[in-house]
Amino acid sequence: MVGKYNVVFGFLFFVLTAALGPVMVFKYQDWSVAYGEKQQSMGRVQQLKADNFEENLETLTGEKIAKANTDGLLAINKLVNIETDIGLIRGGPHSHGNLESLLNIVVGITLMFIGGAKKLRQAVSWIFIVGTLLHSGMLYLERVFQIEWASTVLKTGIGPGLILLGLLAMGVLAAMYWQGVPNRSDNG
Residue 168's beta-bridge partner residues? Predict the structure, then answer.
């Protein structure tokens, strides 16, 4: 039955992309530690400023002030780096992968209710699977595993282009060949 592979692929790919949720939660533990470090180091800088850069009634040297500022800047940088890592996963392979997984499931089920040429429906089916792999699959490889060549594939735009082509084709197929009942001619 045309569409079966989309449903199977959609659920299996969904497992991979949804599994990034716990990865982000784990990274948030690092974020909590970094946030505490930032609060502590910036609290010290704020207190020094409030005390007119004096500590224990002694004016601080430029070196001590510079060290306090450096600690604060490094703590902020660490926090920003962790937030960036989480954002790259959340905004890329996690969200796009989840969406494209569900899209494959919906397309697979919809294809079961569409008539017309079987080869055309199979082509549309594979367009969605390949488009998903070339888009959110490459995002996964690039942002989770830091595989550089995946970025090259992403820059071509072929993955999102295939998804859009598939959506257009599904609209045309549904308009022309919608049956309302499962297509029994594909069994076998």
Answer: none
